[in-house]
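Hi support team,

I submitted a single chain yesterday and got back a structure, but I'm not sure I'm reading the token output correctly. Could someone confirm the output below corresponds to the sequence I sent? I've pasted both exactly as they appear in my results page.

Thanks,
R.
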Amino acid sequence: MCSRNRIIIRVKLEIFGCSGGIGKGLKTTTFLLDDTLLIDAGTGVELLTMEQMLKIRTVVISHAHVDHIVGLPLMLATIYDQHQHPIDVYALPDVIQALQAHIFNWTIWPDYTTLPEYNPILKLHALNVSDTLQTPAHHITALPAAHPTPTIGFLVSDGQRRFVFTGDTGCNDALWPILNSSPPDLLIIDVSFTDDVQELARLSGHLTPSQLVDQLGQLNQPCPVRITHLKPGFEQAIMQRCQHLLPDWDLDALRQGDCFRLQAIEPCPD
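Hi R., thanks for writing in. Yes, this is the structure output for that exact sequence:
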């Protein structure tokens, strides 16, 4: 009989982009989950290999701002001749409408919802706040966000472990009761601006370090926190302020190249 527990890797989350802007070495929001699911499709998509792109089956989009969708049409064009399975894209109805009207419209980009005719590579699906998308390996619940354009975050679970990506958001009091009922093992949250531009942060729907303190104060059970969407040139100042205000938290910047492996401990079978 085995007397030890075993650690099971339940969720693998790879960060290909997490910056609030572009520049040398900076890519915008692109997270790859367990090789088959893409969370947002920013400029980080260009770091994926052909093999990685061909494995993707599902894409969830938080909102229609270009830094979160620009990689999607380019990826579809890249894999078009080799794909064997359609890619299912889920987003708010307004985002689906924006993709159809402004991207896949034959003017900006081909309409991949009709190509190839016998089995289109792209399938678009509406996902509303509180809806849960079930894939073979994950449950993905759409979370409320506070941003100038219709936006959602995501709570992703495999049934035992879960993480939350808030999406682009400012102060979002509707979020925390949900997280208190389903405590995450990892929280990825948007803090884009320094405290001296509170009004800009409010108008653009992003957090500052001081606002982060108020928001996390509503979380009953602390968890590791990673800060995303930092504005280029202000990353160090924002993170120093966050860590000064929240010294007891496991808190750090999210970084391109990070790979999180959320684990579950189970009894070793006999």
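A quick pointer for reading it: DSSP finds eight helices and 14 strands in the chain. Let us know if anything else looks off.

Best,
Support desk
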